């Protein structure tokens, strides 16, 4: 194990900002609304809450503990706690997940850069959601443009990672995450207050309140095993869990930090921002009578329409897409860091080389994802194109399985006292509900994930 000193996060707020920076990203603003839209709204939200609290939080505490205790990357951490066992493979799976997720993540992040450009040239002016949706589909099915932005975004991610994240990323996130938060609140207020949309002939086209109903009123008839698996996958994806990101970030955290409290704060902020994104989007979706099931284009075609209805719309649009891109950047950095920390510490490749090798290979994989909306659209695996396959396999399989292994490792391989001592800073802070947390980690989380998983592949039920 390498024992070179690591410069950790400098302050508690810095830890929250960076970990929340990883958690809050496309998952909250882009993926959560469209998944909720496709999976029945309120029912999906309810399941999502249950998974965040019952499974996400304890797994996040486990990852923080494993990382801070070992001071190592996702693979090295398991090697140090369980030497000469196959447990390190959990970390290897995490590195593989980082490659897969960042490949499509880079593509969507690239879209946000195109939208910053469109906002600058005021291209959305006078467009209704239908036209915006058409524009979005034309853009993503162009083989060149999205790849151009994807490569640009991945370069930006690599530059920050090469430069060393902590100084850069801690500073950026501390400043920008609060602004993003405020902006989403303002957009939410505007969206809810849109009210009734009446056509010139007096017909009601839609009402913004129906969006709130859709988001918060669960329709249980919409729940089937695919919805359950999507909600579980989304909880892991949104909280950046199951692949060693939080282990890696945990390894940069100081010994006096209260890990349980940090985990609760990060999970709370992440969930709050996902819900606020839903409140910003669904009322407008219903006001404009756009199908909530529209899919990945939802945010891109609905939000610019809300901005048109706001005084100073030009600035709102621009500010939103800039912050959206920053939220994506703070997450993509953490994804790349999982792979780079592994390459530098375990394979002893220097940081510059490691970043270039990983970023270039991930970008290449990402080009295939991007082209699956155009020239490669007929390439499919089990009915999903390359882009959707990367997303589905990583979010719905690798992350939950990774999370299950992490919970089993913490609950059964580590000693209870080891876990307790790290979580309580050697007994100096009181851990309320420790027994329940430990019970969930040992039994409930692994069993629940296994059941969802076995059902979804058809081995149960
Ligand atoms: N949590 C990020 C989001 O919601 O956009 C995505 C992500 C980052 C997933 C880091 C996994 C990860 F390790």
Give a verbal description of the structure.
The protein has 461 residues and is an all-alpha fold. It has a single domain (12-401), classed as Hydantoin permease (Orthogonal Bundle). The chain contains 18 helices and four strands. Helix 1 (12-23) packs across helix 14 (313-345) and helix 3 (42-70) crosses helix 16 (386-413). The N and C termini lie far apart (45 Å). Residues 22-23, 25-28, 101, 237-238, 240, 243, 245, 331, 334-335 line the site of 4-fluoro-L-phenylalanine (PFF). The site of 4-fluoro-L-phenylalanine has 15 residues, from helix 1, helix 2, helix 10 and helix 14.
Q: Say which CATH homologous superfamily is assigned.
A: Hydantoin permease
Query: Beta-strand percentage?
Result: under 5%
* CATH level 1 name: Mainly Alpha
Q: Main sheet: which strands, in order across?
A: 1-2
CATH topology: Hydantoin permease
In percent, how helical is the residue content? over 70%
Low-confidence stretches: none
Cα-based radius of gyration, to the nearest Å: 21 Å
Supply the CATH architecture. Answer: Orthogonal Bundle
Ends distance? 45 Å
Backbone structural class = mainly alpha
Please work out how many helical segments DSSP would assign: 18
């Amino acid at each position: 194990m390498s024992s070179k000193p690591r410069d950790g996060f400098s302050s508690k707020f810095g830890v929250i900002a960076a970990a929340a920076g990883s958690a809050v990203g496309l998952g909250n603003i882009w993926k959560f609304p469209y998944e909720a839209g496709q999976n029945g709204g309120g029912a999906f939200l309810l399941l999502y809450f249950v998974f965040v609290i019952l499974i996400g939080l304890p797994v996040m505490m486990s990852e923080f503990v494993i990382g801070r205790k070992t001071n190592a990357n996702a693979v090295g951490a398991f090697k140090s706690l369980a030497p000469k066992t196959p447990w390190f493979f959990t970390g290897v799976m995490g590195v593989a997940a980082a490659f897969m997720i960042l490949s499509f993540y880079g593509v969507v992040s690239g879209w946000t850069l195109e939208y910053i450009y469109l906002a600058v040239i005021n291209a959305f002016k006078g467009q209704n959601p239908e036209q915006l949706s058409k524009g979005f589909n034309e853009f993503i099915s162009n083989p060149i443009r999205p790849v151009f932005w994807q490569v640009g975004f991945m370069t930006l991610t690599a530059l920050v990672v090469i430069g060393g994240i902590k100084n850069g990323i801690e500073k950026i996130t501390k400043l920008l995450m609060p602004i993003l938060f405020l902006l989403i609140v303002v957009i939410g207020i505007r969206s809810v207050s849109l009210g009734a949309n009446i056509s010139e002939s007096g017909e009601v086209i839609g009402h913004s309140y129906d969006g709130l109903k859709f988001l918060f009123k669960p329709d249980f008839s919409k729940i089937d095993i695919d919805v359950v698996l999507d909600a579980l996958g989304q909880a892991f994806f949104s909280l950046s869990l199951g692949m060693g990101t939080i282990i890696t970030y945990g390894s940069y955290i100081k010994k006096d930090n209260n890990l349980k409290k940090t985990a609760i704060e990060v999970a709370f902020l992440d969930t709050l921002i996902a819900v606020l994104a839903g409140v910003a989007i669904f009322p407008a979706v219903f006001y404009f009578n756009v199908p909530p099931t529209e899919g990945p284009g939802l945010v891109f075609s609905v939000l610019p329409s809300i901005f048109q209805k706001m005084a100073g719309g030009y600035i709102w649009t621009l500010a939103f897409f800039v912050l959206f891109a920053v939220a994506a950047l703070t997450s993509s950095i953490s994804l790349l860091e999982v792979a780079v920390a592994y390459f530098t510490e375990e394979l002893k490749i220097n940081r510059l080389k490691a970043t270039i090798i990983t970023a270039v290979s991930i970008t290449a994989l990402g080009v295939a994802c991007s082209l699956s909306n155009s020239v490669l659209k007929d390439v499919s695996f089990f009915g999903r194109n390359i882009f959707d396959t990367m997303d589905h396999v990583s979010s719905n399989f690798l992350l939950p399985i990774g999370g299950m292994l992490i919970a089993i490792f913490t609950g059964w391989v580590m000693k209870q006292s080891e876990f307790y001592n790290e979580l309580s800073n050697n007994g100096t802070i009181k851990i309320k509900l420790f027994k329940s947390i430990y019970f969930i980690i040992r039994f409930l989380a692994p069993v629940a994930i296994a059941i969802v998983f076995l059902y979804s592949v058809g081995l149960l039920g």
